Amino acid sequence: MGAAWDAQQERSTRFMVALLARSALLFGRRLMHLVLLPIVAYFLLTSPASVRAARAALRRILQRKVGWLDVARSFHCYAACALDRIYLLSGRPAGIVIDVSRPPEVVEAATQGGSLLLVAHLGSFEVMRTLGTESHALPLSILLDRQQGRMFIGMLERLNPSMAGNVIDAGLRGPQLVLKLKEALEAGRMVGMMADRIRADERGVEVQFMGGKARLPEGPWMMAAALGVPVIMGFGLYRGGSRYTAHFELLSRKIDLPRQRRAEAMQEVAQRYASRLEHYTRQAPYNWFNYYPFWQ
């Protein structure tokens, strides 16, 4: 993940996160959404790095001059998704409506065994996690670094202990991580992971994205090739009000990275993912939540 944005997210304390969760469940979604306005104003005034990054991204996405209102809309969209996370994870959807698009090839690939679900910092990935707990959906495990996501894990344990129990710690190394992933996949579960942010210490693959060059992490593609399972993309877009749309697409039934042309094959599949990410980002431009210098 982008270190700068992660650091800004950690500005919240455990106490404040717990207080927000309790307030959201106590006062309800409609009243809490009014509280978002001063929160957005605060971050507009105190987060110049995020404002610059948001402007730069929106200029690429919207392909026009970007003003303060555009940045405010992006921040408000992020805040709304963050608030709705509480309702989605707690099992109290508070009138939230999710329209789901799952083509037959996605259902077929996912129901024949384990699969990987690639998500991004675009809109709400909680929409994907929530769908994974529904009776008509496939069970979902989450690949997440417990050390980096301590506050989220804490909130998840309070709001949805069963989902918290299905978190696979990405901080595990080597055989331990592979064993945990194989156990989940052999049980027929989907394993969800982020595929759009690269850490400073992580190897990446270069792609064309929004008219520029960006780097995506190598990990998802190496993992998919090693595990030999179908790879599905998921994008949960916030459409305003109480409405979300969840889009699932089949990226590949099996990713093959032959040793002789591994770098080329990895770039090809990463570019296909980046192209679909660009497609959905242009559909919902204010859903782009990578508030750090994303492009090279």
Quickly list its features.
296 residues, alpha/beta, single chain, two-stranded antiparallel ribbon, disordered N terminus, 12 helices, seven-stranded mixed beta sheet
Ordered list of secondary-structure elements with their pairings:
Elements: H1 3-9, H2 14-27, H3 29-46, H4 48-62, H5 68-90, E1 97-101, H6 104-111, E2 115-119, H7 126-131, E3 140-144, H8 150-159, H9 161-164, E4 167-169, H10 175-186, E5 190-194, E6 204-209, E7 212-217, H11 219-227, E8 231-238, E9 243-252, H12 262-283
Helix pairs in contact: 2-3, 2-8, 3-5, 4-5
Helical content band: 40-55%
Oligomer: single chain
Number of domains: 1
Q: Classify the secondary structure makeup into a structural class.
A: alpha/beta
Would you give an account of this structure?
By secondary structure, the chain is α/β, with parallel strands linked by helices. Helix content is 50%, strand content 18%. It contains twelve helices and nine strands. The strands form two sheets. A seven-stranded mixed beta sheet has the order 1-9-8-2-5-3-4. Strands 6-7 form a two-stranded antiparallel sheet. Helix 2 runs antiparallel to helix 3 (29-46) and helix 3 (29-46) crosses helix 5. It is globular, with a radius of gyration of 19 Å. The chain starts with a helix and ends in a 13-residue tail after the last helix. Residues 1-12 have low confidence and may be disordered.
